[in-house]
Structure formats: structure tokens, C-alpha cells
Amino acid sequence: MIEVKDVYFSYQNGVEALKGVSLTxxxxxxxxxxxxxxxxxxxxxxxxxxxxxxxxxxxxxDGVDTTKRSIAELSKDVGFVFQNPDSQxxxxxxxxEIAFALKNFGYETEVIEKRIxxxxxxxNLTQYRKTSPFxxxxxERKRVALASILxxxxxxxxxxxxxxxxxxxxxxxxxxxxxxMRTQQKTIIAVTHDVxxxxxxxxxxxxxxxxxxxxxxxxxxxxTDPEILTQASIVPPQIAQIFLELPGLNLQKDIIDVYExxxxxxxxxxxxxx
Amino acid sequence: MSVFSGLKFRKxxxxxxxxxxxxxxxxxxxxxxxxxxxxxxxxxxxLFFLQVPFVLLARVQREWVRSLxxxxxxxxxxxxxxxxxxxxxxxxxxxxxxxxxxxxxxxRFVVLVESxxxxxxxxxxxxxxxxxxxxxxxxxxxxxxxxxxxxxPVLAEEAQTIMDAQKARGLELEKGxxxxxxxxxxxxxxxxxxxxxxxxxxxxxxxxSRAWGATKxxxxxxxxxxxxxxxxxxxxxxxxxxxxxxxxxxVPVPMLHDILASWTHTAKLLTITLL
Lengths: 274, 275
Hints:
heterodimer, A: alpha/beta, Rossmann fold, six-stranded mixed β-sheet, four-stranded antiparallel β-sheet, 10 strands, 39% helix, B: mainly alpha, 74% helix
């Protein structure tokens, strides 16, 4: 469980990135953190594995204050996948890349071997085991980065902009993967601008603006509230827009799922046809 | 890293920032030459305080102090190595003359750092590039130079992100013995170098697609022009240089410890006569 209690944080250059953020993320939750650039999303999640420590307030991971544990200790529970895979890839082979963190955490050689095989398999990378990560395509590099974090099976997974630079197929795989992780009671926290992706997954959404959380709730509610979305400079998902643009039909407002929308519209059309 | 932050330009409007970088550079070089000219403490102290009005006028005190503090370690190293050699050379005794020249040598280094720091703190990379270009340095070199300067903060930010990413994978930089600690930096250096190379290739393509080097003769949006302040700085620089050379050649520079000794001597005499 992640508990954030009235956290303030400023960078060295004087930018106030967080101004009193409080929230709780329970085990097994899927949370999308959204908001415009500079709203403090990445700053907030960097508090979850101790990369940043609050200037004021407290961050508790499973009841323990992050200031009392090292980044390495926290990272074992909270895996953080960075936005750009190039900021972490350095090994000669994909295999070594994944082994890096496992060695840092002091796993035994046989365990490392098993974990590598498991993580490669999970993300369809088995054929690249001995390839240099620098020879892979952007999407593949992103998967290697993800595999290198998943390898030690952290309880919580933070994904910073997981959908950037991914084609539709990869996004769909990512979505399925997140769903699979959820069945294993993993906590998933995604920082993202991708409204359509969030609409498809329907997680809990935290909207941030200027260092504060301005809305917190299920995606169907948040992403269909034009007023809140305008404040966070977010355009509602296309399905929600259609439903908002058809006031004459007296439609439900909280629809973001394509299939649900299709079903509702189908019903209306059938009624008309009669 | 604090030494570098003392060299980083920040946009401020001040009479010093508006000066022609060429003239400022000449001024810095003159200070450099004078600092080399003297090894005595008194003129170096004068030289040190000579920069203070510039710093205050340019309103860069904070950065300036930071750069001096950053230079502190190296200054301490210079002081101690000189001091130890002088100490041994003098037959394991501390002579006031040696102490003074050692402090002088250290202060010489501080003056050099100080003047360069003032120059870089008050001169934007663009201005500097323009100055180089107008002094007929080939544009290719000027461009390479200004780009390098401009990308330092970008690389620093990138290095921070990489460090965070590797720490999130359990890398502990401060762990292990000396050799292990050096090896700890490999996971940071490789992504940094790879991304710098990628970035430079991208930059090259972006430049080519904007017709870089299409014409031999380039024109500039801004041209540097000498103004009143620049002429004033030339006059000041020339005066300082002339005075420094004159004093070096014709005036014996006293040692501070001699003056202090004579003062204490007169003070003693005074108290004796008064009593």
C-alpha cells in the first residue's frame, strides 16, 4: 500500500513541483496519473521508490517511511520503468541487461538464469536473448526495459509513459499484460497522456494540475467530466466526446468503452427502426 | 559540479552583460597576464578585489561565490602542495616569506578562476559565438563550440535521468571499494555516450534539412557593435595593464609580512615611548 500524506516538493531551481499531495493506493489497484506537462506526475511517482524524498509530508510504502529506506531497498518492492529505454540500456546482450538488476539485488546465479528466461518469455523477447539491446527497434527496447524491471517481480510497477512510440498492436499487448498483472494482485501505476489507452483500460484516474491532485476517481467518471478535464488540459476520449455531442438523444454521459457505446447506440437505432 | 555551475550563463540584463564579449575577453586575458606577472600577495589581493565591482554590477554574486567555493578544493590542493615543498625546501621550518608566496600562488589561481567565471557568467553562448564569428573564426568551428556549450545542461539533465533509472534497478553508486565505485559508473556512462551520439546524428540531420552550409557567406541577425561602455572597458583595461607593467618594472613591490613586521615594530616603539 502506498500512502502519500500532504507531500510538498521543490526542485533545486526553485520550481515547486508538488504542493500538498495526499492519496492512498491500495494493493492490486491500477491507477493512471494524468495531467498536462509540468503538473508534477513524474515527480510524484519518483517519490514512490525513493528517488525523490518529500521536502514536507510523508510517503509510506507498506507503512514504512521512504526516508528510512534506501532507493535500492524500495526498488525491490516498487519497480520503476522509465519513459525512455535508452536511459537505462547499457549491456552487451539483452540477457545481461535483465541480469543487471538481479545481480544488484544479490540473487543467486541459478535464480537469475530462471528469472531471465521467465521475463523474456513474458514479453516475447526470447529470440533476442543474445542480441545487443542497441540493435533492437524502439518498441523492442521498451519491452527489454520493462522485462529488466519485471525480472525481480516487484509488488508495485510504475510505468512512465508506457504507450509512447508504441503501435496499436503493442499497446493492446501492453493492456493485456497490465490486466494479467492485476490478476496477480500487482499494483500498477501508469503516468500517461494517452486518453484513449486509459479509456480502454478503465483504471482509477488521478488528475494532476500544478502540483496538486484535482480529481480522483474511476476513469468512466473523470474522463467524461468536461469541466475537470478542461482544468487539466485533457481532451475527453472520442467515445465520450460523441456522447457529449449528442445531447438530443438523452444518452448516458459516463461511457468511454467502445463496445458499450456501440451497444447503446444499437439499442437506440433498433427502437427507432420499429 | 559546483565549479561548472559557476560558469553557467543565466540571462540577466546588466551593463556587464551588454558589453561586447570581445572586449570582455581582452579584459579577462589582461587580468590573466597580470596575475601571472605578479607572485607577490599584495597586488594579487588588489587584483582579486578589482573584480568585485564587475560582479556586483552584473548581479551574479551568488553564482560567482558558488564558483569560488567550487574552486576551493583545487585552491587548497595548490596551497598544501606548495606549502609542503617550501617547508621541506626551507629545511623543515616555516618562514613567513614562504607562507606569503604560497598564499600568493593560491590566490593567483583563485583570481584566474574568478575572472573566467565573471566572463562566462555574463556572456551568453550566442554572444560568444557571434564574437568568434566576427573575429573571422570559421563558422564550422564557431557552431561546434556554441553547440557544445549549449548541450552541457541538456547532457547534465540526461545524466540525472540515467542515474535515476539505474538506481531504480538497484545500482548503488557509493557502494564498494575504489575500483568497484569506478565500475559503478559504467551503467551510467554507456547510455549517456550512446544517447549523445544519437543526439548528434539527429542534430546533424536536422541541420542538413535546414540547409546548413548552403552558402559560403552567412549573414547574422545581430551584429556586435562597440558602444560607450565597451570603450570605457577598453580604457580601464589599458590603464590597469599599463599600471601593472609600470609597477612591475619600476616600483619594488613590498611583502605583506615585511609591512606587518615593521608595523608591529613601530607599535612596540610607540608603546615604549608612550610608557
